[in-house]
């Protein structure tokens, strides 16, 4: 994967990618005529001091992102799209980091964007990057956009030096792990998961109440066996029908998403955080973090450890004792240290088990 600035190439691919995501995937029904900047990328972005980036894989467009420079040190972030099959490969983050570096060099103080209200994954990305929701009357410059029940966000770059360590952690930046604020947040989490671990199986309502306080988001029919432990809790998203066996540890210094119908065996460890590699930085509390995403219908065998930045695809099985440092695709069995794909899961793996399902 490589990122280039727009140079007049790939116009048809850029338009095709964006319209496909907007209309076939997101169902927001935007026409090309409603987005004249797509037909005049150089004039709309680069001519006025902005930029437009393209992510490529073997010459094919897989992502886009633009920045329009406006008055009063403001800029508009637009056309942030990544092809679906590449979203687990950090393409969006790479594009965004290019934009952020460019914006700082251009002395931009405020970045504004609009996003469809249904784009919940995008909202989480923006909010973790430090964007805040704003109302139309809070816009610092005039800005027109297609009205599709959009949400407006703004990032104040002039205030990044004043970010707390928690805000840096949420934005995916290096942070100081030793500050008191993070220490206090850990205490809150520990009180909650200790209370959870003391409950009995019959206390389902009490368990659900504690999980609602502890976790960022928890779906229906989630069952977590004691002894469950986490670092903050608020960065953990668990979808519906998830079972987590005894002794799970999640150090959620970045977002951890566990997809629906997933099974976690005993003594699972999910570690989205790394201490700094440089010894001097490390002893002074330097840490970095990358999100972990576990797909739907996944089975993690006992004692599996998942490291920072890993995405595991839907329906995949990770064998017991595996250490997973890199992404694993969907529909495979993977094992080992480091974890590697053993084989695909096929129709031949089905048994006659479901034939009796109607009698259960």
Descriptive labels:
360 residues, alpha/beta
- The average pLDDT value, as a whole number, equals 91
Individual helix count: 8
Instruction: Evaluate the radius of gyration.
Output: 22 Å
Total strand segments:
27
Principal-axis shape: globular
Structural class: alpha/beta
- Strand arrangement in the largest pleated sheet: 1-2-3-4-5-7-6
Please indicate the percent range of residues in DSSP E strands (runs of 2 or more): 25-35%
- Helicity, in percent? 10-25%
Major beta-sheet overview? 7 strands, mixed
List low-confidence stretches: none
Task: Calculate the terminal CA-CA distance, rounded to whole Å.
Answer: 49 Å
Q: What's the layout of helices and strands?
A:
Blueprint: E1 2-5, H1 11-25, H2 41-46, E2 51-57, E3 60-69, E4 74-82, H3 91-105, E5 110-116, H4 120-128, E6 132-134, E7 150-156, H5 165-170, E8 175-176, H6 180-197, H7 204-214, E9 217-218, E10 223-224, E11 229-230, E12 236-238, E13 243-244, E14 249-250, E15 256-258, E16 263-264, E17 269-271, E18 273-275, H8 279-283, E19 286-289, E20 292-294, E21 299-300, E22 305-307, E23 311-312, E24 317-318, E25 323-324, E26 332-335, E27 340-344
Parallel strand pairs: 4-5, 9-12, 10-13, 11-14, 12-15, 13-16, 14-17, 15-20, 16-21, 17-22, 20-23, 21-24, 22-25, 24-26
Antiparallel strand pairs: 1-2, 2-3, 3-4, 5-7, 6-7, 8-19, 18-19, 26-27
Helix pairs in contact: 6-7
